[in-house]
Amino acid sequence: MRMSKSLGLLRLTAMLLLGLCRPANAFDYSLSGFGSIGFAINDQPIAYLRHIDDSGTFRSDSLLGLQLEARLTPQFSATVQMVASAARDKDTGAEAAFRWAFLSYRLTDEWLVRVGRLRPPVLLNSQTGEVGVTYDQARLPVEVYSLSPVYDVDGAAVTKVWSTDTVEYGLDGYLGNTRIKFRDPRTLDSLYTKSRGAYIPERIRLTGIVLSVATESATLKLGMHRVNVWPYGNRPARDELFQIPVPGAPPVGGTLFVPGNIIQQVDINVVTLGGDWRFGNWRMLAEYGERDVRDSTIGIG
After folding, report:
1. 243 shares a domain with 96
2. Distance CA 254, CA 265 (A)
3. Are residues 241 and 155 both part of a single domain?
4. What gap in Å lies between CA 178 and CA 199, rounded to an integer?
5. I want to staple 51 with a disulfide (CB 3.0 to 4.6 A). Which of 58, 59, 171, 235 is the partner?
6. In terms of domains, do 52 and 150 share one?
7. Whole-prediction pTM value?
C-alpha cells in the first residue's frame, strides 16, 4: 500500500490535535471497523467500473476501514477514518488513505461546525457509500453516485437543525478543496495504445448547501452545488479532439485527431434531489442528479 506525503501530514495533524486537546482525565472514545469482501464478474470482456470484466475481480467491492471517534470536551470531538482499498488513481495496486479527519464543535444542540477532511451530505447515502454493502443496496448506482469523482474535501461545514413535533429540518452548508486524478478514457494515451485511459490531475473547489426534511416515514433532501475545476500539474487539460479527414488510403490517409483548445477552468453547477419513503413492509428510494458543465464541450454533464 502507498501513502502520499499529504496523507502522512494529515495523520500527524490529527494525532497532534488529539494529543493537544486531551484533558488530564481520559476522554471518551470509540474505535470501530468495517470491511467488505466482494466478488464481481461481468458478462462482457470490457471492464466495468475499471476492474469488473469477464474474469471476475475482488478489487471493485473489497475494502477495509478503521474509524476513531473521540469526545474531547462536551463541545469538541474528533473523527479520523482510514480506508484501504484498490487505488483510486490507477488501475493497479492498493492504497491506504485518510478519508475523514476533522474536528467538530457543537455550539448548541442546533448548531454544529466541522473543520478538516470531511464528507458533506450531498446524497442520501454519501456517508456510507464506500462500504461495499450499503444496507439494502448491494452496489449503489454509479450513474448517480459518480456525479462527482470524490466527495471528501478539505474544508469546513456548518449544520443547523430544528424540529417540530413531527418534522425535523436540517440545513448544511460546506466549502472545501481537493485534488483528484480524473480518469479520461478519451485521451491520446488510450487512442493510440491499449491503455484504458489516462488519469489527469485536477484541483477542485466545492461549495454547496443541502436542505433535508425528515419525518418518521420519509426523508427528502435537496442540494445546490457549485464546482470549480482547474488542471493541476504539468499536464494541461484540453477540449475535445477534432477529427480531420485526410484523403488517401491508410496509412497515408484516414482520420487525423487534433487536440482541442487548452481548458483553463471548468465551472459546474450541480442539483441533487433524493427521497426515501417507508410504508408498511416496503421501502422506496429515488435520487436525481444533474450537472450543468460550462466551458467544455466534452464535460461530464
Report:
1. no
2. 33
3. yes
4. 15
5. 59
6. no
7. 0.76
Residues 216 and 292 reside in one and the same domain: yes
2 lies in the same domain as 51: yes
Q: What is the pLDDT along the chain (301 residues), one digit of tens a residue?
A: 334 444 444 454 445 445 544 444 557 889 998 888 888 899 988 888 888 889 999 988 888 999 999 998 999 999 999 999 988 877 788 999 898 999 999 999 999 999 999 998 888 888 877 665 555 666 677 777 778 777 889 999 999 999 999 999 999 999 999 988 777 655 544 444 444 566 777 889 999 999 999 999 999 999 999 999 887 766 666 666 667 788 877 777 777 777 767 777 888 899 999 999 999 999 998 999 998 887 666 655 5
- Grid-cell match 462536551, residue found: 74
- Last residue within a domain, chosen from 58, 83, 102: 102
122 and 172 together in one domain = yes
What cell does 294 get? 460550462
Residues 194 and 274 in one domain: yes
Q: How many domains does the chain have?
A: 2
Domain boundary among 102, 117, 140: 102
Beta carbons within 10 angstroms of residue 65's beta carbon: 19
